[in-house]
Amino acid sequence: MILIVDDKPENILSLKSILVLNSFEVDTALSGEEALVKILKNTYSLIILDVQMPGMDGFEVAEAISGLSRTKDTPIIFLSAVSIEKNFVTKGFESGAIDYITKPVDPDIFMLKVRTFCKLYEQTRALNNAHLALQQEVEVRKEAERALQSTLTGLHLTLESLPQIAFTATPDGKIEFVNQRWYQYSDSKDIFPSLHADDESLTDRWDECIHTGKLLEMEFRIRELTTGEYRYHLLRVMPVITNGIIVKWVGTFTDINEQKRLSEFLEQKVNERTRALQETNQQLEASNHDLQQFASVASHDLQEPLRKIRIFSSMIKSKKYTDPDLLEYLSKITDSSERMSTLIQDLLNFARLSKADSFKLTDLNEIIREILSDLELVVTEKQAFVSVSPMPSLDVIPGLIRQALQNIISNALKFSKPDNVPVVTITADFCEELSVDSPSVVEGEYCRIYIRDNGIGFEEKYSDIIFTLFQRLNSSEQYEGTGIGLAIAKKIVEKHNGLIIAQSIPEQGSVFTIILPVLQQKESFSDSHSLKTTFLTKKI
Predict the structure, then answer these.
(1) N or C: lower Cβ tally within 10 Å for the chain?
(2) Which of helix, strand or coil describes residue 316?
(3) How many CA atoms lie within 13 A of 155 on its CB side?
(4) pLDDT, tens only, 212-252
């Protein structure tokens, strides 16, 4: 930008027109004072000054500009049609101008000078910037050298204090410093310690490390000079990088002989323990089989006396006794025997969950239809409303997953509020993680099944307890059951490598969320894709 300073607007207009026509950016000032204010705020590549101005004349303005550090290199041209005597020209140059032009002036000559002075200013400015940058770079390099030397001294002191063998090397791999421990394994600073004949070559790995610039880490045995003993050491060599360039290598040999011997000993013990655990596992499998056989026999033997109790109680009640106390006692005997029978059957079902079963592709829609068919009398009696969204096909054990879902759905109907119509909603979606909070996706590795009800609910602090065997939150007189149903459901879900979570608010209902893998590990991705496609088709 060029600044024109003249107290006459007509002079400014003529000069500005010439400069603008030649593609120069122009600023103007009508007095020396105004010019100084603008010079302090802006940067100009050339200043054209009139000599005679009211207030500060051109010479005073030029002297002020030359005295400022930020503008001392700005070229100044005096342009005057009045002050053309030699003494004025001399004073102009003494004030800091680089040219003194008297009018009339040839526009072509004037523009030639303007271009020349602007170019010289830009070149001078670029040269000054380059010089300043060079000075800064020299100072940075000097400071870096001082810091490097200080760091190097500190590094050597640190390496001497280490309990390991330590050394440094040049970027091309020549060893330049070793600590005193080095000489316990080598006679010379330039020679690596001797390795055991059976160990990997250090020379090849070291050359590869220098070539690639990567960390070197390897274990081997090196020979101690005084005893001749080969001891295990861990070698780690790391590059020291400055400005993206390797300037040094720093390496350490750490004695791991004791750890290595201990590791070998522990590995032997682990192998022995593994064999013992395998034998124990085989014994447990045999014991588990015997336990299942016992549970089956025991349940049969326990059920038989209960059946007789129920039969004989019914026979006594059929005699049409009129004693109310006797009838009440008979009812209690019958109810207790029924609960005992149910409890035995639930315990047997729980014990059978440890039995190995095969997974297969199962349509959950069919499973839920069967469950609702079995619960039809309860649904009708309570006038319940059950809503079921399209369900996917999953890789499950059909009988077990049916039992788990039936236990939860029957609970939703059982624990309804007396004055409300029970509403049960069953929906499903996909997610990528085994988590309730995982975002819903179109296709995922897991399927979430939600069973919502508007029943009596429970406190959130009991959300884990309800899945414990025999744990009940309500009295058996008010709500029948053995306290095993949810424990069975949890164990079934866990057997499917899944997760079950209960969330509830008292008197507002509950939500049971079951998360199951779409496929168990044995299945392929193509099968998984077909299962998800089936679900999406049903939803559409």
Answers:
(1) C
(2) helix
(3) 19
(4) 988 999 999 999 999 999 999 999 999 988 888 998 899 99
